[in-house]
Amino acid sequence: MSDTEHVSPTTLSTVDHADAVELLGLVAYTELASFGRLAGDAAHAPTLRQRQALSRLAAAMLDRQERVLVRVDELGGDSADCMTAFDGLFDDFDARTRPSTWWEGILKGYVGQGVADDFCLLAAQGLDERSRAVVVDALTQDTPAQRYAPVIADAAAADPVLASRLALWGRRLVGEALGVVGVVLSRRPALARLVAAGVDAVAADAPDGPGNGPAPATQSWVFSRLTAEHSRRMDRLGLAA
Amino acid sequence: MSDTEHVSPTTLSTVDHADAVELLGLVAYTELASFGRLAGDAAHAPTLRQRQALSRLAAAMLDRQERVLVRVDELGGDSADCMTAFDGLFDDFDARTRPSTWWEGILKGYVGQGVADDFCLLAAQGLDERSRAVVVDALTQDTPAQRYAPVIADAAAADPVLASRLALWGRRLVGEALGVVGVVLSRRPALARLVAAGVDAVAADAPDGPGNGPAPATQSWVFSRLTAEHSRRMDRLGLAA
Q1: Which of A42, A56, A80 sits opposite B36 (nearest CB)?
Q2: Which CATH architecture describes the domain B9-237?
Q3: Measured by CB atoms within 10 angstroms of the end CB, which terminus of chain A is less buried, N or C?
Q4: For the Ferritin-like domain, which residue ranges apply (chains A, B) (predicted)?
Q5: Which carries the bigger pLDDT value, residue A218 or residue A182?
């Protein structure tokens, strides 16, 4: 079976479509929230060059979000309404993680968006090929995290006090971010189904067959995957996770 | 003389190039500032749909800004440095016009960006054809003002108290915005030269010849043009200017 035939959109049931639209809505909402945060960070950037660079990253992110909403339309969803279920999703996270410096704000974007994107990418494994490609493209192409890792790493390397504060702040951020993932998994069964479907697909493709694939898509399995990715991201900054 | 031959980029002197780069830098900086303001308004929009719509307008504006910076490169300017001279230009304006409601913020964008864009469009009349086209395209294509005029007009029509407050706020905003224009004209001779060159070009093209063209590009002439445009803009909202 070729890649493009794997799960063709035309063979998806209505339920699959509804699940896909829900994940696409989460991706679109996450990008909208990240856009606002990044544009705000940009406005307070220490230099005009950073202000311009961060503003461009924010604008590019919202341009990619548009393609996610186009996919929602293609699946028969409502691109205006698909984000509604997630409205306010990050309010509690934001209230608990108010940055006290510009660097804390930048790390918040790096960690928070990193966890959110990784969760969406995990769930995207359960999508049809085309929707998955749209999500992967939106979340992995020229991300602020890729661009900003060296900037944070350089600043942390030059200032050990900043580095130790940011390491502590990163641990707090990842804990709060995983809390949001827990809320999403428990309240949105469609997303839990997509994560489970993705695990099954990965297991079926594994050389040893389904029996030796990863453990079921429980919340703790998701958390361990997201934590491992978070550790790798912090390593890239030279900070202890 | 055909339009495209009027002032061809290749016939421009180095001084003309430097003046053009200066105006393009102001346009790019103004759009960067508007991007940050609009993204901030978006983040606090009353509804998710408005949040999405305003975010998209902000992102589209920054996409057009990129073309202005490309033109700076084409003229041999430095796209990273061309905005530096204007860094902080709106700080005083922003400090004097802190919106106390979301609607005041939206009107601030409508009025402030309107005056800034009109000034840049006036000065752009003194540019070479290609640079002028880039500026006109950046500042007149699908602007937030065009999109948001009906939204503000509807809200004002439905609420006379809001309408009278916004009318008062609009007068305060335009006064402060003209103050910024005065600062720019007195501190940046290149921009005053472009405005004057634009007036001459318009006068030369007038049916009655140069003698009956507009008055010289004094600050008071610029202010009267900008004020007239502002009145037309407020009319579109159904608010007294």
Answers
A1: A42
A2: Up-down Bundle (1.20)
A3: N
A4: 20-196
A5: A182
